[in-house]
Amino acid sequence: MTTMGFVLYDYWRSSAAYRVRIALNLKGLSYASRPVHLVRDGGEQHSADYQAINPSQLVPSLLDGERVVTQSLAIMEYLDETHPEPALLPADARGRARVRALAMTVSSDAHPIGNLRVLQYLQSTFNADELQRADWSRHWIAVSFTALETMLANNAATGRYCHGDVPGMADACLVPQFYNALRWKLSLEPYPTLQRIYDECSALEAFRRAAPEAQPDAPAAAPA
Amino acid sequence: MTTMGFVLYDYWRSSAAYRVRIALNLKGLSYASRPVHLVRDGGEQHSADYQAINPSQLVPSLLDGERVVTQSLAIMEYLDETHPEPALLPADARGRARVRALAMTVSSDAHPIGNLRVLQYLQSTFNADELQRADWSRHWIAVSFTALETMLANNAATGRYCHGDVPGMADACLVPQFYNALRWKLSLEPYPTLQRIYDECSALEAFRRAAPEAQPDAPAAAPA
Questions:
Q1: Domains of chain A by range and CATH?
Q2: Which residues of A touch B120 (CB under 8 A)?
């Protein structure tokens, strides 16, 4: 722990960064935002300066004083270990496994496949046009949302939020992916439980302040 | 904890399942292997019976008695919490964050994009032929390996293995991805540290017994 505070290398529309913003807000931890523009000038995440912080050339990266932590889920686990209250994970091993599995169904099964660099590569390699890239994104979100809806609906462990009545790591992953689904105009009717939890979370200040449009680097009028 | 033992829904060539086999072996936990054939008959992971266990229709799934745990990294965390020794993660928050970030650089940044279902979808949507699918796989492995090599080389925390001199969660992710890289014939010269750690791990019984070709469902003569 340090008195120097947190610095978050961030991008308003990155859903991995959005997760960490939610987590920091839920814990009441203040941080300085350092935007990394993922598109301008070929992507500032590829600069030598940023690569020295994060060799994966992805956001987010969290500085805790001098210490660099990368990977959004590793950052959330780190925050939970160093600032335990309020917890992002439940106390019991079974509950922790459930929350991590829900979180990873977003962070491993959906998000990486629809990430910016994959869409850019689809365009350069297969000449995928805008419509095809949108179809691709929707397809993989739908695959993971179908799984998540089953995992969450009619499960006694699901409460007001993904796990019980306290928002945590699974919610911090679900909400940014739901934002992506809205952005890509995925039909959300098949996912009433996800919609309900998204609405519950959206009523919370910690989630609202983390929203893309509320970030300092968001354009004044965000593109559709 | 239970006396009923572990059952692993497994597939010999799944690198996510391979990670969990390594983890179970490192901890000296015996398990019954229940192979799920990912290709035959359109993929047994899509059967109603398997979907009832794992709505994501992916392997692995671990049964701990009656309890189902999914997502390979969530399974490893669960094993570390319920069977702490030997540990897959270091004791300090900083080290744990580093190991998780290394593990997720494989499990989130590389593996999902080259996964079977993505290759199948590339084929059906963009008519990607075998060569293009191989290029695609190599590309994303190279992207993550470049990051991993930087994260591991010349870092004081790297030892005989990814983190110190005890094999753990990061190694359990690296080795199966390295196996994939060999399978796709990625040139490995740029990654001497990954190669060295792969070789170190390959000398260990826990890793050797987890190898795809050592599994009960591996074909007698594995296809190239």
A1: 7-86 (3.40.30.10), 93-208 (1.20.1050.10)
A2: none
At B202, which helix (H) or strand (E)? helix B192-202
Rounded CA-CA distance A186/B195 in Å is 42
Q: Are A70 and B101 inside 8 Å of each other by CB?
A: yes
Angstroms from B202 CA to nearest CA on chain A: 26
Nearest CA in chain A to B63: A94
Given the DSSP bridges, would you call strands B61-64 and B6-10 parallel, antiparallel or unpaired?
Answer: antiparallel
* Radius of gyration for chain A, computed over Cα atoms and rounded to the nearest angstrom: 17
The model's pTM: 0.96
In three-state secondary structure terms, B61 is strand
Nearest CA in chain A to B57: A147
- Amino acid identity of B49? D
Among A108, A125, A136, which would you mutate to test the B interface (most chain B Cβ atoms within 10 Å of its Cβ)?
Answer: A108
Cα distance between residue A180 and residue A71, in whole Å: 19
d(C-alpha A113, C-alpha B125), whole Å: 15
- DSSP string over A156-204: TTB-SSSSBTS--HHHHHHHHHHHHHHHTT---TT-HHHHHHHHHHHTS
Contact status, residue B61 vs residue B68, Cβ threshold 8 Å: yes
B100 neighbourhood in chain A, CB within 8 Å: 71, 73-74, 77-78
- Kindly provide the ipTM of the predicted complex, given to two decimals: 0.96
Provide the residue-wise pLDDT of chain B in tens; the chain has 224 residues: 444 699 999 999 999 999 999 999 999 999 999 999 998 888 999 999 999 999 999 999 999 999 999 999 999 999 999 999 999 999 999 999 999 999 999 999 999 999 999 999 999 999 999 999 999 999 999 999 999 999 999 899 999 999 999 999 999 999 999 999 999 999 999 999 999 999 999 999 999 999 999 999 999 865 55
